[in-house]
Design a protein that fits this description.
7-stranded antiparallel sheet; Phosphatase 2c, domain 1; alpha+beta; 26% strand; 6 helices
Length: 361
């Protein structure tokens, strides 16, 4: 699942490693023209930085087979919007499929609470898929148990619940791997939609990208000069070669080899599991970011590193935007996105993508 020394769009996040306990309240500000400066509605546990890129990035190469997908729709009448989500996957040129995914439009698991809760995730396994399967089974339940708000939304409480859920899941996974005698690991990109707030958490090199439209004029129409959607990278990659990650690894006694890998083997520096590398600084502490759903949020794309090795963020947003304009359903769009990555652009890794479309009523 890994390639060393590849430049990625999310490298511009702040150098702060762990998520900050401070949560900045989203401020409302007037936006005019095509200003792509920081949007105060996107908050982060690791600093409020993000990347916003006009659609139209370059394409890279790849390949694979189109597989099944599952789509689902969730409605929130009083809030005036619906969202539809679908996942598609392909093992690419690999012999086995180590990605697993979660699509839960109603993720309350019958727990009491009146806030709508949706959950979507991709777990990209390495060394096997046992860690990925374990995280899929336990992470969301652990986040709910840790206190994800179900009655009154509190951003600080929600981020703490996600952080505690990741920590608890990794602790249990490590115990399970000891008793089972396996050493698998898994990166993750996860989304929780609570009421109208979207929370994104990631470890490793899986990525989430938001497609946002331009500001509107007084009549409510999008200005012509700003018509392309912006691609906003909501995650920060965690690789051993990056300075802040390398520093933690070295303080733990680990070595980042000339190939950019921890102990010459592992490219990512944060993951579930990887029991043999925990003593060298591998952690499962996620970066957590949040934003408020408004009329400008169009859709999100979650993808494992296989997808992003052949699609730039702007490129993927443009690809999905075109298919949406053609009136295709999300189930078809997700399959075509993965098929394009594998068949046409020659992705050699496992490839999984979730497309989440936000629609106003």
């Amino acid at each position: 699942m890994e390639k060393a020394n590849q430049k990625h769009a999310a490298d511009s996040f702040s150098s702060e490693d762990l998520i900050s306990p401070r949560v900045k309240k989203a401020k409302k500000s007037e936006e005019t023209g095509c200003d792509s400066s920081k949007d105060p509605r996107i908050s982060s546990g690791a600093g409020d930085e993000k990347q916003e890129i006009p659609v139209g990035g370059e394409a890279v190469g790849n390949r694979a087979e189109e597989e099944g997908s599952s789509s689902c729709i969730s409605e929130e009448k009083k809030k005036g919007f619906v969202f539809e989500a679908d996942v598609a996957e392909d093992k690419g040129a690999r012999q086995t499929m180590e990605d697993v995914s979660v699509v839960l439009p109603d993720a309350s698991l019958d727990l009491p609470g009146n806030l709508r809760c949706g959950h979507f995730a991709i777990y990209d396994g390495h060394g096997g898929r046992l860690a990925a399967e374990f995280a899929k089974k336990h992470l969301h339940l652990n986040v709910l148990s840790a206190g994800l708000p179900r009655e009154l939304l509190d951003v600080k409480v929600a981020k703490k619940a996600i952080l505690d859920g990741f920590r608890k899941t990794d602790e249990l996974l490590l115990q399970e791997s000891v008793s089972g005698g396996w050493q698998d690991g898994a990166t993750a990109v996860c989304v929780w939609i609570v009421d109208q707030k979207v929370f994104i958490a990631n470890i490793g090199d899986a990525k989430a990208v938001l497609a946002r439209s331009s500001p509107t004029d007084e009549s409510g129409n999008h200005t012509e000069a700003c018509s392309p959607l912006k691609a906003i990278v909501l995650t920060r990659e965690h690789k051993a070669i990056y300075p802040q990650e390398r520093s933690r690894i070295q303080k733990s006694g680990g070595v980042v080899s000339s190939n950019g890998r921890l102990q010459g083997r592992l490219e990512v520096s944060r993951a579930f599991g990887d029991r043999q590398f925990k003593k060298f600084g591998v952690i499962a502490t996620p970066d957590i970011h949040a934003f408020e759903l408004t009329e400008r949020e169009n859709f999100m794309i979650l993808g494992c590193d296989g997808l992003w090795e052949v699609f730039g963020p702007s490129d993927a947003v443009g690809f999905v935007q075109k298919l949406l304009k053609d009136g295709l359903p999300v189930s078809t769009i997700s399959r075509r996105l993965v098929k394009e990555a594998v068949k046409e652009r020659r992705c050699k890794d496992n490839c999984t993508a979730i497309v989440i479309v936000f629609k106003r009523e």
